[in-house]
Amino acid sequence: MESHGTIDPFAALILLDSMALKILILGGTTEARLLAEQLAHDPHYDVLVSYAGRTISVRSPGTPYRVGGFGGVDGLTAFLKTHRFQGVIDATHPYAARISSNAAQACFMAYVPLLRLERPAWNRMEGDIWTEVDNMHHAARAIGCSPRRVFLSIGRLELSAFFVAPRHEYFIRTIDCGNAPVELPRVHMLFGRGPFCFEEEKAFLEREAIEIVVSKNSGSKATYAKIEAARVLRIPVIMIKRPANEAVVYGDPEVAIDWLRKLHETSFSDRGE
Ligand code: NAP
Questions:
Q1: Please, are residues 191 and 176 in contact by the beta-carbon 8 Å criterion?
Q2: How far is the CA of 28 from the centre of ligand 1 (A)?
């Protein structure tokens, strides 16, 4: 915007406001939080972050946020239309397949541009002993018949897949205790939110004599230390593959910032501003 002479500060404020793009960030990941923090003080964007509400405490992203489901595709479509969102960034976890599918459908129905931002997966490195499986049920079977000491680093939501294998001793790490009890006979609950460091993860695997690690391929730096520690200790990892998502852009928050910049330019040049 070129400036000519003196600008009435009140008029400038109105102009700034009218040029702020209304953006919904679907969150629940470090990337979503970092992105929101970067946009929080940028007058070009008016950001709302949405959380499913899976954890007891929510870390404020520095922007307004809401908690809870939308009520499926129809609910999200109505939400986008009612609040006149102009862009959606789906920065949810790579394994949160339902909300990503809902977002794709709802954005299509509401004519709202969508960016699906996903962190790249971890690659198998020399020394890694990985068995890749398609889902949690296959992971439970892949642990094997004889009782093992298993580190389950998969969150809380899909623990029921392991009910078929109660013979193992499970070490389960989640962010918080949640509401539902874990119906497995030999369970040690551990609570913690990443980032986790290599020395601590290695010490934990050794102390508890862990024989198998079960993990999603989240791709997060904050949770990679357990994979490195397992490699060094020659502990096998059962790695659950990511659900397929065709419309993914892999990258960090900078990719989303670029996308938003272009969206902002296009939106306001279309309106002749
Ligand atoms: P999901 O299976 O894809 O979604 C289930 C339902 O939860 C959705 O249909 C939606 O309800 C609601 N939902 C999910 N994410 C939402 C969001 N950001 N805002 C509002 N509603 C949301 O998701 P999930 O695997 O349960 O994961 C839930 C959340 O935890 C996600 O936001 C994800 O980023 C985060 N997370 C997941 C994992 C994981 O391993 N799955 C790990 C770390 C963090 P409605 O249909 O009612 O709208």
A1: yes
A2: 8
